[in-house]
């Protein structure tokens, strides 16, 4: 991990998506800026932080920049994701078609309800949460998505941290604490709606 | 809408959540900064843009700042949300407990599948998408959440725009275009995972 600012890191996936869809050999800082919703100067500064200088009147080389961003994000190889919680949300996330084409494989999904464990979601069979620690040690997955009710979120996060997970994406509508050594982000639907309320 | 920067607007819900949970009459810029993941100087600048100056050694008045942010975000009164798509994701979102306590009521959910229309999710009965335009005109909802497959997202967004929706939160794993007059945000799970990959 280099010392990029959080704001820059947050924009890299948006540049990457454009680069992956770009049919041309070069891309302008204006196009990249548009994809990330920032000014062209911002985009140029972000890419300069990765050691990339655009060529005046030409822009950036698409493939080179794409590979560099993938490397920086640590997704040159595919990442294996485990989902905890096989309710409506966990099931929806397991079926979410946007993950596979962006470098992530849902390797496993867990629940604790006897009525769910053993059921299938697409190619996956729902496993009992008790198997999670052994699976993590075997390298079945290394990133976790929390799709459990608010009341269980901290307990499940603690178990994931204890078992050595590298990073957690929290969908539960509650704040969860993890040690600094574990990366965590929260997808907070109400925050998104509040931001939208400002604009419309 | 005042002329706040996108970055500032994006942080307001995080300050607000802290203010809503804060048991004390005052809150420091350090506490606010911690909630939003920025520096205290950033937080002070954000609040100065709202016309708030902290008091040295005291901080900000919790209730006053909370009410000001709610007003700025346009959520002094509750907002009514319509969900389009009653599959796993739409159902999960309709049941998401984090919305109601942050000022949003899911007023209606739509689908087109005969097997779903008429079914119940909690207190809601799934309505046919054909009813959407009339509902929007009657003020049943004014913000929409897109929880449809990628292949239908643009078509449904076009129908919502045509019917006069104010803002759209897009969960479909695809980019959707709307006119500038409509506010839109995309929750992109793969972007979140890519950001996490950088850190862990």
Task: Characterize the structure shown.
- 2 copies of one chain form a homodimer.
- Chain A has 200 residues and is of the alpha/beta class.
- Chain A is 42% helix and 18% strand.
- In chain A, the strands form 3 sheets. Chain A has a 6-stranded parallel beta sheet, with helices on both faces.
- The longest helix of chain A is centred in the first third of the chain and has 16 residues, at 6-21.
- The mean pLDDT of chain A is 92.
- At the A-B interface, helix 1, helix 5, strand 9, strand 10 and helix 8 of A face helix 1, helix 5, strand 9, strand 10 and helix 8 of B.
List the helices and strands and how they pair.
The structure is a homodimer of 200-residue chains.
Chain A: H1 6-21, E1 26-27, H2 29-36, H3 40-49, E2 60-61, H4 62-73, E3 79-84, H5 88-95, E4 104-111, E5 120-121, E6 124-125, E7 127-128, H6 132-137, E8 143-146, H7 150-163, E9 167-170, E10 183-186, H8 189-199
Parallel strand pairs in A: 3-4, 3-8, 4-7, 8-9, 9-10
Antiparallel strand pairs in A: 1-2, 5-6
Helix pairs in contact in A: 1-2, 1-4, 2-3
């Amino acid at each position: 991990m280099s010392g990029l600012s959080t704001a820059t890191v947050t924009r890299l996936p948006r540049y990457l998506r454009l680069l992956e869809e770009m049919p041309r050999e070069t891309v302008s800082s204006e196009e990249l800026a548009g994809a990330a919703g920032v000014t062209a100067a911002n985009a140029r500064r972000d890419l300069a932080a990765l050691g990339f200088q655009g060529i005046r009147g030409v822009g950036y080389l698409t493939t080179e920049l794409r590979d560099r961003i993938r490397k920086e994000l640590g997704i040159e190889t595919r990442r294996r994701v485990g989902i905890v919680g096989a309710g409506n949300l966990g099931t929806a996330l397991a079926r979410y078609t946007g993950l596979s084409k962006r470098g992530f494989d849902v390797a496993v999904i867990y629940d604790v309800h006897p009525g769910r464990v053993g059921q299938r979601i697409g190619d996956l069979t729902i496993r009992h949460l008790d198997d999670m620690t052994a699976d993590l040690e075997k390298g079945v997955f290394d990133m976790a998505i929390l799709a459990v009710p608010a009341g269980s979120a901290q307990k499940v996060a603690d178990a994931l941290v204890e078992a050595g997970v590298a990073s957690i994406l929290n969908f539960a509508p509650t704040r969860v604490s993890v040690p600094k050594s574990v990366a965590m982000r929260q997808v907070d639907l109400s925050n998104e709606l509040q931001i939208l309320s400002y604009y419309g």
